[in-house]
Design brief:
- By secondary structure, the chain is an all-alpha fold.
- The protein has a domain of 151 residues: Tetracycline Repressor, domain 2 (Orthogonal Bundle).
- Helices cover 72% and strands 0% of the residues.
- The protein contains 13 helices and no strands.
């Protein structure tokens, strides 16, 4: 059946907006993404070529393009996989008896401290995410294409929200806030500082060694606690 030019354009736009979905991959392609993730963690995205990933994964370059289309798609899949691994580490805390025995505010502090420690332990991951953000902004990647990736990044939001609601109930959180805004502002701030630490000092005042790499992240966590507990 013949397709009009208008129909072709519409179909192309729909295809471009299809979500980049890690869970839709075949097992063999998941293995390629795991190899790609290692390559992206070791080198800046701009320096990585599809031939580098193909060599690391033991597949042909033509096969790699046929399965993943672009380096950007492969980078998003890699980031989704890395966030999933990252978040699995937090599950150990959340499922522990010690965590479940805490009040709301203490749960939030424990969660934030876990992210702080993980960010500091995985500077190469922070660097990769920073580069990926710039790449996706430059390419104008649509929200629909990044829906699965975004869901993985935000997968712990409900646990944070539950901790906030518990704190409001048990009295440990005395100040009501617009929690979605509060959460995203804090998440963005922590991630941005961690990425700055990963990039390294630029000007003399970027003296991370003076107080320790965790000091600036701790300030943000303490500010969040003071805001929620109404302490100034």
């Amino acid at each position: 059946m013949a397709t009009s030019a208008k129909g072709t354009k519409r179909d192309g736009a729909a295809a471009a907006e299809k979500a980049i979905d890690l869970d839709a991959l075949a097992p063999r392609d998941e293995a390629v993404v795991a190899c790609a993730a290692d390559v992206f963690l070791a080198r800046p995205i701009a320096e990585v070529k599809m031939t580098d990933v193909a060599e690391a994964a033991g597949v042909g370059v033509a096969t790699l393009y046929r399965r993943f289309s672009t380096k950007t798609d492969l980078a998003v899949l890699s980031a989704t996989l890395l966030w999933r691994r990252f978040n699995e580490q937090i599950h150990t805390l959340v499922e522990s008896d010690g965590f479940l025995a805490l009040g709301g505010l203490d749960r939030l502090e424990a969660l934030l401290a876990s992210y702080r420690d993980a960010y500091l332990a995985h500077a190469e991951f922070m660097r990769f995410l920073d580069e990926l953000d710039h790449l996706l902004l430059a390419e104008g990647a649509g929200a629909a294409r990044l829906a699965v990736y975004g869901a993985e990044v935000d997968s712990f939001y409900l646990i944070f929200d539950d901790a906030y609601l518990l704190g409001r109930m048990d009295g440990s959180i005395t100040r009501e806030v617009d929690f979605p805004v509060f959460y995203h502002a804090l998440a963005h701030a922590l991630t941005s500082v961690a990425q700055k630490l990963a990039r390294g000092a630029v000007i003399p005042s970027d003296d991370f060694a003076a107080a320790g790499a965790a000091a600036e992240l701790d300030v943000l966590i303490n500010m969040a606690k003071c805001t929620l507990s109404n302490h100034v």
